[in-house]
Design brief:
Blueprint (H helix, E strand, L loop, with lengths): L2 H9 L2 H7 L2 E2 L3 E2 L11 E3 L25 H7 L2 H17 L2 E4 L23 H16 L4 E7 L12 E3 L2 H8 L1 H9 L4 E4 L3 E2 L2 E2 L4 H11 L5 E4 L8 H6 L14 H8 L5 H17 L17 H14 L1 E5 L13 E5 L1 H4 L19 H8 L5 E5 L4 H9 L3 E7 L20 H11 L3 E6 L14 E4 L7 H9 L13 E2 L17 E3 L8 H6 L4 E3 L10 E8 L3 E2 L4 E10 L5 E10 L17 E10 L4 E9 H4 L1 E3 L4 H9 L16 E3 L3 E10 L2 E10 L14
Parallel strand pairs: 3-4, 4-5, 5-7, 6-8, 6-18, 7-10, 12-13, 12-14, 14-15, 15-16, 21-29
Antiparallel strand pairs: 1-2, 8-9, 11-16, 17-19, 20-22, 22-25, 23-24, 23-28, 26-27, 28-29
Bound molecules: beta-D-glucopyranose.
Beta-D-glucopyranose binds next to loops.
Amino acid sequence: MPERVEAIVAEMTLEEKAAMTTGAGMWHTAAVERLGVGRVKMTDGPNGARGLTSDTGASLTPSVCIPSGSALGATWDPEIVGLASGTVARQAKQKSANVLLAPTVNLHRHPLWGRNFEAFSEDPFLTGKLAVGYVRGVQENGVIATVKHFVCNEVEHERRTSSSEVDERTLRELYLLPFEFAVREGGAGAVMSSYNRLNGRHVADDRRLLDEILRGEWGFGGFVMSDWWALVSTLEAAEAGLDVEMPGPGKGFGPALAEAVREGLASESLLDQKVRRMLTTFDHFGLLRDGYEDVEVPVDAGEDRAVARRAATEAIVCLRNEGHTLPLDRGRLRSVALLGRGAEKLAIMGGGSAQVVPHYELRLADVLGARLAGGARLSVDRGDDIARAASLARDADAAVVVVGTDEKEESEGFDRTTMALPCKQAKLVEAVMAANQRTVVVVNTGAAVELPFARAVPALLQCWFGGQELANALADVLLGEAEPGGRLPFSIPERIEHTPAFGGFPGESSSVRYGEGQLVGYRWYEARHLPVLFPFGHGLSYSSFSIGPVRVSARELAPGGKLTVEVEVENTGPRPGSEVVQVYVAPPGGGQLQPGGRMRPLKALKGFAKVRLGPGESTVAGIELTERSFAYYDIADADWFGLQERLGDAGSTSHQALHRERAGWYLDAGTYEIQVGRSSADICERVQVEVTGSSQPLPLSTPPG
Ligand code: BGC
């Protein structure tokens, strides 16, 4: 710890230390001016810098609005995500804020969670790698990233009291993994504990999570804040390892904590620890300074606009494109009908704390109208009168129907009640399709919706809540000036009844039982042989690509080892484009339900690379796999050994190898299959690798994978 910090802590009074453990109002940490500790301002997060807010939570000054979490998830590109989060960090600084309350790395466990739009994916590895990109983009710009909400915050219904009931192995392999990546590989400076309880205990009160796992196992050196008004205790949270209660004045921390010290219930050194963690992080980011002035002077910079636009196009997923309906041939179109909600107004972000006031909003009708070739007619209609919309479609060379949800339907604070498109939008699509054979449907949502027309529509794009540049990005993709670079970050189910958490969402009697365990997303659909409408990872380029052959740098992997999967990729089509090479690892013997064996998903994503190639070009994508790519978490069952002894001859010793005394990540010996493809359901190449197992857990220092 820096001497400077030590000197400040030594000088601080008990009251000053206690004051630092809670916010100074909604968005600031407390200052100790006499010791040169200024206030530090926080801001939401994640798709823009909200800055100070009005009583209703509205942002007071504008910000650049980048695509929302699920859109960033669809880019499958940590670098693009980092560029985008970098713009948010710069906006934060323009609002005098140096702590960004982002990224959100909870998982899309169920399609109806209200905040899916804010989170990247159903897959923990994809989420983790994108979280690393996000955190780096923020922190390289001098702003502290706050990875949230720690942990298992995947429902809005009764979110402050509900308890996520999750088994330890699922917790480790799925829900903790993105946080582990963000902290260990990304170096996140702050973590926000979630509203919900985990297995009955509020996360802010959970010493095992905060102290043992986050700090002890992962070496997190930053500070932990509570979610807003989430704290329910004083001593428990103080001892568990929470550092700051937000916002202030605090109920559990602040003066209450000073009082606890005076009464001898807590030690002052506990407060020292909290203050040290905050000041050390502030010092690292150059925030221990006098003369802090809270001004908000946002800048609408061309560079930020360009990044927001690029991220939005890289996120658009082409789900279907029969007969090369897309891109639209601008030279040959004399008339286009632009229909649906999005013809009037695109949804560019979801609702709740992520909402910002963008510098400007663009109408797709204006952008598209301006870019169609001279004289082409654009008729625009919201589609409330379906017959009228169909007749406009009939009279046009092509119809574009933009359907979806908005920030009143997908928001923090409540979950969706149906996966269906609101109002009569599905009917509108059917009527337009019947009227015009060249119909393109654009789905403008943050999460999966039912798409009853998906197998009949000529072309289908998922454009997400794509941020302030969404209209430009959509026009770029519709007219072929850019590729639809996105791939689905979640599976789109055939029906809600097929989803893994159906029946276990949003929970009852204050309990949300994660009964599907590890089988979230594609892991579930594959295990259950359930068809999906579109699989995880799916998305079409305007060009075509070949994947393979695949080489691996080693056919064997022993503890401590790693290997590189080299994948040849060629653009075999006529246009520049991008392909996302996806590497899945399948455990020995198909993984599941081996007698006496361990249940493992049929496969899990463990690497990916987005490659961009001109026509005829090829490249070799190198994707590294490490021990953790093959490992699983064993919760261990030490009692088994004692029981065996007590049972004597009646006990069976033949299962000895299946039981362990120490919990941890383990490598089981066997032949694993590396599967390389363009979606979870489209595997092009398979290579076998022999893994040497170990009876010892992997060392704690083994990086996540
Ligand atoms: C949200 C957090 C957010 C905080 C501050 C809470 O309601 O859950 O994500 O950062 O408010 O606005």
